[in-house]
Amino acid sequence: NLEQSDYSLAIKNPSNHVYQDSKQLIGAALQKRVENIDPETCGVGEEDAFFVADMGEVYRQHLRWKMNLKRVKPHYAVKCNPDPQVLRLLAELGTGFDCASKAEIEQVIKMGVDPSRIIYAQPCKTKSYVRYAAQQGVKQMTFDNADELYKIKQLFPGAELFLRILTDDSASLCRLSLKFGASLDSAQGLLELAKKLELNVVGVAFHVGSGASDPKAFLKAVQDARFVFDQAEALGFQLHTLDVGGGFVSETFDAMAAVLSDALDAHFPPHIRIIGEPGRYYVANAFTIACNVIARRTVRDPELGTTSYMLYLNDGVYGNFSSIMFDHQHPVPRILKAGDRIFYDKHEDGYELDGEPGTKALPTEYSIWGPTCDGIDCISARCTLAETLDVGDWLYFEEMGAYTKCSATRFNGFTDKHETIYVSSESGASALLGL
Ligand code: PLP
Questions:
Q1: Which of the listed residues 81, 95, 98, 248 should we mutate to test ligand 1's pocket, taking the one with most ligand atoms within 8 A of CB?
Q2: Which end of the chain is more exposed for a tag (fewer CB within 10 A), N or C?
């Protein structure tokens, strides 16, 4: 039961207060973990990349959601980052969950979450998974085509169905409507078929694309959903829920939420239940990753007389930086440790060095690579850092919580399991998780 005052305490405080706390906590955890690792003597894997996650950030995002989208009950999209502590915190905070597979449903059910808090939000489902959902009592699920309706009729006729409709997702980072969603033209036919099969359609769902940037996409989707609600009602269905999907980005959330809230109030009366499926919004900024420099190649350009370096890290595009390929991200490298010196958060403006204001280091040019054999395993084709780094040094990257570790592979035999150190910059989250 989080009240507005909690939110005010957490967010309305001078923003740098909470932010600084978070930075300091993350910095202290990063430093503690790396300071005693000696690449000359450490055991296998001791220098592996690792995450630091601030659960306070997840908590704050939840408060912010509740303030800005009062009507919308979030169902966290597990696919985005199925981290067990994130799921635990959100379960404690009372959110629902959007699951896309049997494994995700199982993970959430095993935490003791009631199946009524889960939506199986995948319009094209595996048959055995539908049977599993039926056994577990996970009734809410989406569909967007006739074949899926026949499948559900056969396997789970008592399911509570959401017709997922197409959206204009052209302004989003990851387009989903290329693959899923019924066109408005086809909605009537699908609803008629559902009626004929005596299936229970309870709502409409949409997703404006992950990393959405145009608030108008939400407005149009809500209007379209209203149209389908009316069609369904004319056929005798009594729809009670609208699912507005995910797509929210922390930086633009307030503006998106304002447009969405107005659209909901304009088109859906208060008795209609509204749910959402945010993923990235909750976790993107909460996770920082630290990676070790495992090798370095010196590149001299005799004509220009310059020296730059290729740095090879122990994590890359086939690992937690899968977000570069799958999620169109550009992670920014920052120096954590160079030689014996810790640089976390000390070199942001003009390359000021640790504790020595005004001292400028010589910027050095790098390209940054992952550990596998593949040439596409490149984290940054070109960047400038304040120090000349060497093997054994550490870099960190912020905003690594969304669509990162969940899509990591074990290509070349590297691990896809990386330690996560949990901290919390909010007492509310600390209490719930015992941090
Ligand atoms: N819901 C569905 C059906 C999705 O496919 C996705 C992402 O692919 C999400 C929710 C989460 O989206 P986001 O992380 O952009 O909020």
A1: 98
A2: N
